[in-house]
Write a structure and sequence with these properties.
By secondary structure, this protein is α/β, with parallel strands linked by helices. The protein folds into two domains: about 1-155, VC0802-like (2-Layer Sandwich), CATH 3.30.2130.30; about 160-344, Vaccinia Virus protein VP39 (Rossmann fold, 3-Layer(aba) Sandwich). The chain contains ten helices and 14 strands. The strands form two sheets. The chain has a seven-stranded mixed sheet. A seven-stranded mixed sheet has the order 10-9-8-11-12-14-13. The radius of gyration is 23 Å and the shape is elongated. It binds S-adenosylmethionine. S-adenosylmethionine binds near residues 205, 208, 223, 228 and 252. S-adenosylmethionine (SAM) binds next to helix 7 and strand 9. Pfam families: THUMP, UPF0020. Monomer. InterPro entries: DNA_methylase_N6_adenine_CS, RlmKL-like_Mtase, RlmKL-like_Mtase_CS, SAM-dependent_MTases_sf, THUMP_dom, TrmG10. One of its GO terms (cellular component) is cytoplasm. It catalyses: guanosine(10) in tRNA + 2 S-adenosyl-L-methionine = N(2)-dimethylguanosine(10) in tRNA + 2 S-adenosyl-L-homocysteine + 2 H(+).
């Protein structure tokens, strides 16, 4: 079957990388049929849809996922919509929504929504009604590059979650906290699965731990500053995460009773977050020495660093190798580099 994902356009590489990582760790085989700005079309095995709801729930850089029912050139859209057996799909109330992904289409979206809605109405049982507020079946149409994709929505990603959990809305706030969306994306890039253990050795206000906790990971956080430890615990409790351990420790000397499945972290940049008077490069180098022993053999680490840090230098002589990188421009003088590391 074919599914379409409406990807966030806020970053050129992160949304696709996140989808790939999550499908991979959930064991879903896929083939990328098409990739255009903001739209990804995948072919997945027929038996996969049951697993898709868990996948959709954990994504952060995707807006919506739908199963493709019709794929045609735009001019043939209404004709094909008339021929489609809608009574197999629409069993109770429904809505049709159209999204133009570029300026090429000549369609007026609200007129097209109305026209498609009427065609469907003529092809289903007479008691079935349109419900624009909360339909049981949501028909999504996407117009892009002269083509139309029509499908049934499988799920959408809640913007509200990422908005409600913004760092300044949590009980404990400290400048330099990471956005929940990026934190979730970084967690996903490590390919961690539900029930596995994730470590953030520079946990600050606990934003990464919260996102990992929400997708069902057990979380361990440490920070050298006791104020942050207390604050992280307060934030985790506020977000309903109970399976956590957070304690005060120096990442350079960290030891744990057993290995973790993933590490996600955002160490100090030497600007806003305290490095306790130490140069970032040395802090990173020493921390990597202890962290490489704490990660399981096939585990991944996802790390946010400033562009000016020599990450290759930091990793030299360690068991880590960079497998992918994404650059996020924060402002004129800072680009964040998100790196996924594997153990060699
Ligand atoms: C950039 S902040 C982390 C922000 C976090 N991602 C958040 O969303 O709040 C870096 C944190 O590293 C901590 N830190 C600095 N040196 C450390 C060390 N040697 N070991 C552990 N934590 C350290 C700081 O106290 C700070 O809370």
């Amino acid at each position: 079957m074919e599914i379409a994902l409406l990807l966030s356009k806020e970053h050129p590489t992160l949304p696709l990388a996140e989808v790939r990582a999550v499908l991979e760790c959930e064991g879903i085989k896929y083939y990328i049929k098409e990739k255009q700005e903001g739209l990804l079309i995948l072919e997945i095995p027929l038996e996969s849809p049951e697993n898709m709801s868990g996948i959709i729930k954990r994504l952060s850089f995707t807006h919506e996922v739908f199963q493709i029912l019709i794929e045609v050139d735009e001019e043939q859209l209404l004709g094909k919509t008339k021929e489609y057996p809608w009574d197999n799909i629409v069993k109770s109330d429904y809505a049709v929504r159209v999204k133009k992904m570029d300026k090429k289409s000549h369609f007026n979206t609200s007129k097209l929504e109305w026209e498609m809605g009427s065609i469907i109405k003529d092809n289903v049982a007479s008691e079935i009604r349109v419900n624009l507020e909360n339909p049981s079946t949501f028909i999504r149409t996407v117009l892009i590059n002269g083509k139309a994709f029509v499908g049934q929505r499988m799920g959408q990603i809640s913007k509200k979650h990422f908005f409600d959990l913004k760092p300044h809305k949590r009980p404990f706030f400290y400048p330099g906290s990471m956005s929940p969306k990026l934190a979730r994306g970084m967690v996903n890039l490590t390919r961690i699965r539900m029930g596995e253990t994730l470590l953030d050795p520079f946990c600050g206000t606990g934003g990464i731990l919260i996102e990992a906790g929400i997708i069902g990971a057990r979380v361990i956080g440490t920070d050298i500053d006791y104020k942050m430890v207390k604050g992280s615990i307060e934030n985790l409790q506020h977000c309903g995460i109970h399976d956590y351990q957070v304690f005060q420790e120096d990442a350079r000397k960290l030891e744990l009773p057993s290995k973790v499945d993933a590490i996600v972290t955002d160490p100090p940049y030497g600007i806003s977050a305290s490095t306790r008077g130490e140069k970032s490069q040395d802090l990173y180098q020493q921390s990597m020495q202890s962290l490489q022993e704490l990660l399981k053999e096939d585990g991944h680490m996802c790390l946010a660093t400033p562009h000016y840090l020599d990450l290759d230098g930091v990793l030299e002589g360690t068991k880590f190798k960079i497998i992918e990188q994404h650059h996020i421009r924060m402002h004129k003088s800072l680009t964040r580099v998100i790196s996924v590391l594997a153990k060699i």
